[in-house]
Design a protein that fits this description.
- With 730 residues, the chain is α/β, with parallel strands linked by helices.
- The chain folds into 5 domains: 72 residues, Beta Barrel (OB fold (Dihydrolipoamide Acetyltransferase, E2P)); 123 residues, no CATH class; 71 residues, Arc Repressor Mutant, subunit A (Orthogonal Bundle); 194 residues, 3-Layer(aba) Sandwich (Rossmann fold), CATH 3.40.50.300; 204 residues, Rossmann fold, CATH 3.40.50.
- It is built from 27 helices and 28 strands.
- The strands form 7 sheets. The chain has a 6-stranded parallel sheet with strand order 11-10-14-15-9-16, sandwiched between helices. The protein has a 5-stranded mixed barrel with strand order 1-2-3-5-4.
- Strand 10, helix 16 and strand 11 form a beta-alpha-beta unit.
- The protein is globular.
- The protein starts with 13 loop residues before the first strand and ends with a helix.
Length: 730
């Protein structure tokens, strides 16, 4: 029996048909929402389940139960999904045009089907040279088609085995790509190696395969893998270490076994160095590479700070007088102390909130060093932060990854301790964003005798990656830190800056609520209903703010939200904002996303081949529905994205506050609601507010703002760096 409709039994538990479109699909988990045309007639039905790498046109067999979602209506929640190559002409068209083969979009798919009909797969398999009969298919495109088809053939052999053990098509493809003909033997021997060796494959996927293969719940390989996974999960939450009891409890919950049963496995993991105990604190354990990074980072930073020679014979008083005369600025007392520290030490951290003169101080210090003929090298963790650093200092600033010459093929850097960088003083801005591994890689690549100047706001969100390097350095008391806390008179006129400091002190912001003729730079609009809040955000961005302020709703206004999901999450807001700000135009549909010319988009990973980096925002300027490609304008450059590259892009009308770090926007709007209660933290709100340059609007409930302001350090990270800094690791 098939899905619901006028010809269908409403109690049916099976749907067989053709995937007509993909409403949503997660590349990470394989969760998908599909529109399916049942093969026995009736209307299109919705199927929800897990099936990685689904393509329109594929034949689907699903088993599950019918449910009625209050928002999305009737749908089949599938317990089991099987996908097969399409059998109908329309299915073949959709399948070939779905982006499965690079360079083949809907246009070429149509031509292939017109030329060969239902025999198109047989032609590809047995008479591939005949494909050249189709206009536009030359040697290059033919080779891409055959390569993709050959890969699919190899996968199909692996699939027969793996799908029988709960493995989806996407994972089966990746297993085959990694292990080739050895795939089946390796998976049978130890399926948990998939979680260790394949990016994006989690413990649960490997565990499902293992259990289907008959491995016992207390098999040693399972217990070891569970402990490693629990530690990796803690790392993903920002921790670099964990108490033994915490690790055992998390692993026990994951494995559904008593914690005591895991203690021998933890001891074995420590003996085998799969996990390590922190030196001087045996109660804490860590992953070996992170522990090494923290040890070496602490050692190198302490060595820099202990360099008694500093910068030689520079007289701080003369240097101060010179820099004030050169810049025409009178430095405040805290800034003058910082200049003296900068001349006495080869390592200095400059920290403070907005409006306290970090940039003025930095430029003064740099002027002194440049006058001495020293080579200054400037960098920042993201492309946007590097651009801002370059604009504020006049230096050529690069991302840290580009400075270290990252090799995406090996995952390593060309510059390291054996092949150090060249320069005398290295300046790193937005250092709060730098995680443990990247900080370690940078510091170990410094040349002998070089200095390091770290600039950042220790009260902002910590890095997305593990660690809280800037916070640990500041809190350690072992390293030179210049903490600026005096808000300058001009900056104090800004309600954005004064409210940022109020939030940081645990006080509610003083915000205008509208009314009156005078325009302010900080407003709070009280709303409690998420649906009404979302509608108001869209109205403000698309109509009211552009009309009142003359700003561009696309280029000047940025919505920052604490989360991705829900009515106030970036996913839902992006769909609404696209409809309001960019409703029509050439569009490419891919994996449930409508990519439309004019869309505001963001790159989510560093891509050194394209010279585009995580957090870069651009605008979609062209789509090619035949080839399944699109072009994005980043500043002066146009970048081409093939179908397989699209997972690196996200719509960015609304982005997470984490993704906004290192950036500033003319106008920022932030929804704050108790719906986000798990994420409402003081540093999150503080970081979001400090992204606004001319106007910040908080929209939401007073209770939610109060919650955020009051919650400080409730999710503090456990790290080993403070212990190693305190001991001065040798």
């Amino acid at each position: 029996m098939n899905g619901p409709g006028k010809h269908h039994d409403p109690t049916a538990l099976r749907v067989t048909g053709t995937v007509s479109s993909i409403i949503f699909q997660s590349a990470e988990t394989g969760f998908c929402v599909l529109k399916v045309q049942p093969e026995n007639g009736g209307g299109v039905v919705t199927v929800v389940g897990t099936a990685p790498d689904t393509q329109p046109g594929m034949r689907l067999e699903a088993e599950g139960r019918w449910v009625t979602d209050p928002r999305f209506g009737r749908q089949l929640q599938a317990r089991h999904l099987v996908l097969r190559p399409p059998a109908t002409l329309e299915g073949i068209r959709r399948y070939l045009g779905s982006g499965l083969v690079p360079g083949i979009g809907p246009g070429f798919a149509e031509r292939l089907v017109d030329a060969f009909g239902e025999q198109v797969f047989a032609v590809i398999e047995n008479e591939p040279e005949r494909l050249k009969e189709v206009p536009g298919i030359g040697p290059g495109r033919l080779r891409r088609i055959l390569d993709a088809w050959s890969e699919q053939r190899g996968v199909r052999e692996v699939m027969v085995f793996l799908q029988g053990h709960g493995v989806g098509t996407g994972l089966a493809t990746r297993i085959f790509q990694r292990y080739g003909a050895q795939s089946l033997d390796l998976v049978r021997e130890n399926p948990y190696r998939l979680a260790d060796e394949m990016r994006g494959v989690g413990f649960r996927s490997a565990d499902r395969i293992a259990r289907n293969l008959g491995l016992a719940a207390d098999h040693p390989a399972r217990l070891q893998a569970g402990l490693r996974h629990a530690m990796s999960e803690l790392e993903r939450q920002g921790h670099t270490a964990a108490a033994r009891t915490e690790l055992l409890e998390r692993a026990a919950e994951l494995l559904e076994l008593p914690a005591a049963k895991l203690e021998p496995s933890l001891a074995e993991s420590l003996t085998a160095q799969h996990l390590v105990a922190l030196e001087g604190d045996g109660d804490l354990v860590a992953l070996p590479d992170l522990n090494r990074a923290e040890q070496e980072l602490a050692r190198d930073l302490v060595a820099l700070a202990r360099d008694g020679g500093g910068w030689g014979a520079s007289d701080p008083r003369k240097a101060l007088a010179w820099v004030q005369q050169k810049t025409g600025l009178e430095l405040a007392e805290g800034q003058r102390r910082a200049v003296a520290l900068a001349l006495r030490h080869r390592l200095l951290v400059i920290t403070g909130g907005p409006g306290v003169g970090k940039t003025t101080l930095l430029n003064g210090i740099l002027a002194i060093h440049q006058a001495k003929g020293r080579r200054v090298v400037a960098c920042a963790p993201t492309g946007r932060a590097a651009k801002r650093l370059g604009e504020s200092t006049g230096l050529e600033a690069r991302t840290i990854h580009r400075l270290l010459d990252f090799n995406p093929g090996t995952g390593g850097f060309r510059h390291d301790r054996e092949n150090p960088l060249t320069g005398d003083l290295f300046v790193v801005d937005e250092f709060s964003m730098v995680d443990t591994r990247l900080a370690w890689q940078l510091v170990r690549a410094l040349p002998a005798g070089a200095g390091l100047l770290l600039v950042g706001d220790g009260d902002q969100l910590p890095s997305v990656g593990p660690g809280r390097v800037l916070g640990d350095i500041i809190d350690s008391g072992r390293l030179p830190v210049a903490r600026l806390d005096t808000v300058f008179r001009q900056a104090a006129r800004s309600a954005i800056i004064t409210n940022a400091h109020r939030i940081n002190r645990g006080l509610l912001p003083r915000a205008h609520t509208g009314g009156g003729g005078k325009l302010e730079d900080f407003y709070f609009i009280e709303r409690d209903d998420p649906e009404a809040m979302a509608a108001l955000l869209v109205d403000l961005a698309a109509r009211r703010l552009p009309a009142r302020l003359g700003v561009d709703g696309l280029r000047d206004i940025q919505i920052l939200t604490p989360m991705k999901r829900g009515l106030l999450g970036s996913g839902h807001l992006n769909a609404m904002l696209q409809q309001a700000l960019n409703p029509t135009g050439p569009t490419l549909e891919r994996q449930g996303v409508s990519w439309r010319v004019g869309d505001k988009v963001m790159q989510t990973v560093n891509d050194y081949d394209k010279d585009v980096f995580n957090g870069d925002i651009g605008f979609l300027e062209a789509v090619d529905t035949d080839a399944g490609t699109l072009a994005v304008r980043f500043g002066e450059r146009s970048v081409l994205y093939e179908a397989q590259d699209l997972e690196r892009l996200v719509p960015s009308y609304a982005i997470s506050i984490h993704k906004s770090q290192g950036s500033e926007f003319p106008v920022v709007m932030i929804p704050v609601h108790t719906q986000h209660y798990m994420l409402l933290q003081r540093n999150l709100l503080y970081t979001g507010v400090t992204r606004g340059r001319k106007l910040v609007i908080l929209l939401g409930s007073r209770k939610a703002v109060q919650m955020a302001v009051e919650r400080a350090d409730s999710r503090r990270r456990v790290t080993g760096l403070p212990r190693y800094l305190g001991r001065g690791v040798s």
